[in-house]
Amino acid sequence: MITATFEYHRPATLAETIGLLQRYGGEAKLLSGGHSLLPMMKLGLAEPPALIDVSKVPELTGIRRDGNDVVIGAATRHFQLLTSAIVQQGAPLLAEAASLVGDQQVRNRGTIGGSLSHSDPGADLPAAVLAAGASVRVQGPSGSRTIAVDDLFVELMTTALGPDEVLVEVRVPALAAGQGSAYEKFPQPASRFAIAGVAAVVTLSGDTITRASVALTGAGPKASRLTGVEQALAGQPVSAIAAASAHAANGWEPNEDIHASGEYRQHLATVLTRRALERAVAIARGQATNRFGLL
Length: 295
Description:
The protein is an alpha+beta fold.
C-alpha cells in the first residue's frame, strides 16, 4: 500500500531534531530503522505529517563502558548490540535478546531506541532492559531527564516519553560476579515476534538466590516485571525455581489472538520463566556460557 503524503527531514544534531518535533507539535514521527513505523504507515494505521530521520544524529550513536554501567546510544542497531564485546561482556542479556530479533535484515536496520520507544507488546528488548534494571535518558525542549525502565512502558505501544522528547541513550548496570542472565523466547514462526518471552537476571550467594529480576514480553499488552516470581525467589535456594515459576502466570492480562490463547500464553510464561532462571543460575555458577560463549 502507498502511505499518505508526508514531509521528510534529516537533522544533523539532537537540538535540530527536538526543534522539528516542536515545529510539528509532537505529531511528527522519528525514523531510524523504520521496521515498525513504515508498515504501520503503509497500512494506514499511522499518518504523520513528517518523518524525522535520526540515523545521522551523532548524539544517538555509540556504545561505551561508564564505570559500572554499559551505555548504549538509542540509534544503535540490533546487530551492533549483539556483536559488541562491551555489551556481550557487560550486558549480555541485551545482546542475547537482540540476536533473536526478527531476521538478519531487521537486525541490520532496527535500533534499540526504536524498539523501546515503540513498545510493541511482542518485542524482545523491552523485557531485556526491564530485567537488567536499565534506565533511559531522554531529551526535550525543557532539557534532559532520566526514566527508569520500570516506568517507561505505560500500555500497548505507549511510553512515558513526551511528544517532543527523544530517547537518547540506554544505561544498563553491568553484570557482576555471582550474577547470570538469560532470555528464553517462543517466537511466532513468520514474524519472529515473541508469542511469549522471558528475560531473567539472578544474583547468587552460594546456593541462595539473593535477588531475581524477571520480565515478560509477548504475552500481555506491554512488557512487564513478574514481581510474583521475583518475590517468591528472594532469599530462597536455587531449588525453589520450579515452584516460583508458577507465579509467572499471575498478575497480568494475557493477550488473545490467532497465534495463541491467553491460557496458552500463561503456560508459556511459566515454562519460559523456569528455563530462563535455570540457565541464568547455571551461568552465574560458571557451569554454562551464554549464547556468545561467555561466562
